[in-house]
Amino acid sequence: MSEAKKIEQVTHDWARLRRAAIGTLVGAALAVAGAASAHHSFAVFDMSQQKTIEGTVSDFQWTNPHTWTWVDVKADDGSVTKYGFEGMSPNFLGRRGWSKNTLKPGDHVKIVYAPLKSGEPGGTFLRATLKDGTEMVMFGGGPVN
Amino acid sequence: MAGSRFVSLSTSTLASGALIAALASVQPALAQAPSKASSQSSPQGDTWASIMKLPDWGGIWEVTFGGGPRGARPEAPALTPAYEAKLKEYQDAQKRGEIQDTPAANCVPNGMPAIMTQPYPMEILFTPGKVTIMIEAYSQWRQIFTDGRKHPEDPDLTFNGHSIGHWEGDTLVVDTVGFTTDTALAGFGVRHSDKMHIVERMHVIEGDKLQIETTITDPEALAKPLTSTRVYGRHRDWTLAEYQCQQNNRNFTTDDGKAGINLKH
Predict the structure, then answer these.
(1) What is the number of helices (H) and of strands (E) in chain A?
(2) Interface test with B, best of A42, A61, A64 (most B CBs within 10 A)
(3) A-chain residue closest to B68, CA distance
(4) Whole-number Cα distances in Å, B141 to A120, B4, B136, B160, B176
(5) Chain-centre distance of CA B246, in angstroms?
(6) How far apart are CA B89 and CA B83, in angstroms?
(7) Is the dihedral of CA B46, B217, B253, A13 positive or negative?
(8) Assign residue B129 a region: left if phi > 0, alpha if psi is -120 to 50, beta otherwise?
(9) How many CB pairs lie under 8 A apart between chains A and B?
(10) What is the least distance, in Å, from the CA of B182 to any CA of chain A?
(11) Which residues of B touch A38 (CB under 8 A)?
(12) How are beta strands A51-61 and B226-235 bridged, if at all?
């Protein structure tokens, strides 16, 4: 199936968009992003890549037009780098299983993201594994199960 | 390409996003116009008693991505040569990497028609002589005068235009003029003149779906009318939420169109 076909298939409702976001189909994840954000382009992100980091939440900004999740990531040499992840808006997420308390400072979190092209630490937030093991999706919203 | 500012993206990967955004936000007109009752005999919502006779549009409406049959492609706007040239100029600048984003990244609202297809809900209020559409995205609102007034002869040019409406049975017909040319007709590269004219036919189908058929004409920009149909799902249990775009906006577009992001925290 061509990527275009796959993308067409996920246009039809949020549930489909959400399933696409959970999957690893990067084009579909971008499609979800495009359909769901409407605020800016994804020119600054490398949507062809998915990276994963683990760290400690330092701040979860439940703000418009995007939530921002700030995570301190410790390297093997002990140095700490602060990453910033842009997510969907509180309006969107609040209707789909997230809340301002989903992530709290001090929480251990694993985040899958599409990195910034600039190489700066951060990117667009795709999904997360919370400290209790719950997997939460950003585009499309809500827990995986 | 039509329907979404995401048509402005230029790389091949991003083009996929443009495709889907366009698919998501514009569907060709498929449904027949609803039965046309005479507007003379329809309640016009000019009094509270008349409003009681209008259809129930309560709840919160959010655009769905299933307005037409699967795989339905959006109708491309048929542009006049002058506006086709503007679009080509824009697309060429995108290819050169000179335009990466639109003013929305700086929290400038979309204006009509794109403000009606944002991935955020809206609420429609009836008061005597007026229908108000509260749009969560960018905290916008539209007022549609149903008290029989005409458009101003020389309207101020605004993002959402000047709207008058009347009821034909259970269909609200909205006529809007007076748009600033700062906004886009379809994708951001598709511009319009100050003579753009939008007619929307809004009615509830299948109980919890609101269908809006939109027809855009523009004697300077469009060679023929551009029609699309979108369907909005009703959410009785939702309420509108605040959307202050400048609260924590870390995205930006520079004056020359470059996209950026602010990671200072």
Answers:
(1) 4, 6
(2) A64
(3) A12
(4) 38, 19, 8, 8, 14
(5) 22
(6) 10
(7) positive
(8) left
(9) 158
(10) 16
(11) 4-6, 21, 104, 110, 118-119, 137
(12) unpaired
| φ, ψ at B201 (rounded to 5°) | -110, 115
Chain A residue with CA closest to B120: the answer is A92
Centre a 10 Å sphere on the Cβ of residue A106 and count the other Cβ atoms it contains: 9
Helices (H), A23-99: 26-37, 90-94
For the question of an ipTM over 0.95, the answer is no
Q: Which residues pair with A74 in a beta bridge?
A: A80
Q: In this complex, do B265 and A84 lie within 8 Å of one another by their Cβ atoms?
A: yes
B82 part of contact set with chain A, CB < 8 Å: no
Mean per-residue pLDDT pooled into runs of 10, chain A (145 residues): 40 53 52 60 89 97 97 96 95 93 96 95 94 86 68
Q: What are phi and psi of B32, to 5 degrees?
A: -70, 150
CB contact under 8 A, B20 and A59: no
Nearest to A4 among B19, B137, B243 (CB): B19
Q: Does B15 touch chain A (CB under 8 A)?
A: no
Which residues in chain B (129-168) have CB-CB distances under 8 A to chain A? 136-137
Helix (H) or strand (E) holding A84: strand A80-86
Residue of B nearest to A83 (CA): B263
Q: How confident is the model at residue B64 (pLDDT cuts 50, 70, 90)?
A: confident
Better-predicted residue by pLDDT, B128 or A37: B128
Which residue of chain B is at minimal alpha-carbon distance from A7? B20
Kindly report the pTM of this predicted structure: 0.82
> What is the tens place of the pLDDT at every residue in B192-246?
999 999 999 999 998 899 999 999 999 999 999 999 999 999 999 999 999 999 9
Question: What pLDDT does B10 receive?
Answer: 35
